Amino acid sequence: MPDLTVRSVDSVILDVPLIRPHKFATTTATAQPILLVTVTTEDGVAGHGEGVVPGGPWWGGESVETMKAIVDRYLAPVIVGRRVNELPGIMADLERVVANARFAKAAVDVALHDAWARSLGVPVHDLLGGACRDSIEVTWALGSAPVGEVLDEVEGKLESGLHHSFKLKMGALPPDEDTRRVAEIARALDGRASVRVDVNARWDRFTALTHVPRLVEAGVDLVEQPTPGNQIEVLAELTRRTGATVMADESVCSPHDALEVVRQGAADVIALKTTKVGGLRQSREVAAIAKAQGVALHGATSLEGPVGTAASLHFVCSEPGVNHGSELFAPLLLAEELLTEPLRYADGRLHLPEGPGLGVELDPDAVKRFTRT
Ligand code: MUC
Ligand code: MG
C-alpha cells in the first residue's frame, strides 16, 4: 500500500506571457500569473494544482499573492501529516481556518486529488466517479478589442477548425458603443459561428434592460453576467424579460449561490469554474443543484494554465450535467504550455489526457523559467 501521508505543501508563483494582450472590462492582461501548488506524499508522489484568477484581483478579490499567503501560512499546516484520501475532512477543516478564499482552496483541492490519484495509479476522473465523455467542445474567448481585430482573429480560428463559437468580453467601453461594436461582429459572423458575450457584471439593471435585447437582435446567442453578481433578482428579471439566453458567472461562487440562482430562475446556464467555487468537490455540489432544476452547465475557466485546465477537464468529463460546452481554451492563450506533452485540442474539442492523476506532466525547465523571483 502506498503511504498517502502528506509530507509537504509548497507553492510558487509563475508569470506566463500571453500570445496577445487579453483586455477585460477593467484591466488588460499581458501575462497570466499562476500559483502552482505542489502536495508531496511521504512516498515522494507529487500532485499539482493551480491558484488562478482571470488577470488579477478585479474579478473576485483574490490574486496569486493573496493565495500564496493563504496557502503557505494557513492551509498548508492543516494538510501536512494528513493522508490525501482524507480529502473531504481536510477541505472541511480548511473552512474552520480560512473563510472564503475559494480560488486558493481550489488549488489545494486539485493538488490533493492529483497526488491521491497518482499514488493509486488512476486518473483523477476515477476519483470523481468515472468518465462519461472523453472530450468537450471549446469556445474561444476574445478580449474587448476593435471590430477589425476581433474579426481577423475569429476568421483565423474558423479556418483552423479549432473553434466554432466565440465569447467576446464587454464592459470596457460605454454600453452604447460596446453594444454597437458587438452587434457589428455578430452580424458579420451570422450563420458561421456562435457569438456569446461576457459583460463581467459591469452594467446596472436599466443599462442591461436597454442593451441586452439589442444584442439578442444582432444574433448574440448567450449573454453572460450582465449585472452585479449579488443582484440575483435582477438577473432573473433579465432572463424573464429580454429573451436572451442568460449565463450566471459571478453570481455563482458556491453551492448556496447556485441554489439561489435556480430557486429564482435567474439563469438558463451556470458557468461552472472549478476555481471560483473552491475545487472539484464543490463543483460537484454546484452541478447537482443545477441538474435538480434543469439548469444547464458550461465548463468555464478563470484562464487556468495546463494543470488547472486539466483539472477542469477531468471534472467536466465526469459530470453529465455539463451539457453546454466549455471555454477551456486558456492553455492556447499562453505563450508556452509548460508541459512535456501538450494538451490535445482537435476537431473543436479538448481531449482528456491518459495517465495517472491529471494526466499532464510539467516541464521543470519551463516552470523554472517562469517562476517569479
Ligand atoms: C470570465 O469572467 O468568464 C473567461 C474567459 C475570459 O476571457 O475571461 C474569463 C473570465
Ligand atoms: Mg465570466
From TrEMBL:
Sorted UniProt keywords: Aromatic hydrocarbons catabolism, Isomerase, Manganese, Metal-binding
Organism of this sequence: Nocardiopsis coralli
Cofactor(s), names only, from the UniProt record: Mn(2+)
Annotated Mandelate racemase/muconate lactonizing enzyme C-terminal domain residues: 147-245
Name assigned to this protein: Chloromuconate cycloisomerase
Classification via SUPFAM superfamilies: Enolase C-terminal domain-like, Enolase N-terminal domain-like
Entry-linked InterPro entries: Chloromuconate_cycloisomerase (IPR013370), DgoD-like (IPR034593), Enolase-like_C_sf (IPR036849), Enolase-like_N (IPR029017), Enolase_C-like (IPR029065), Mandel_Rmase/mucon_lact_enz_CS (IPR018110), Mandelate_racemase_C (IPR013342), Mandelate_racemase_N_dom (IPR013341)
Keyword Metal-binding found: yes
Family: Belongs to the mandelate racemase/muconate lactonizing enzyme family.
Coiled coil: none
Keyword field contains Iron: no
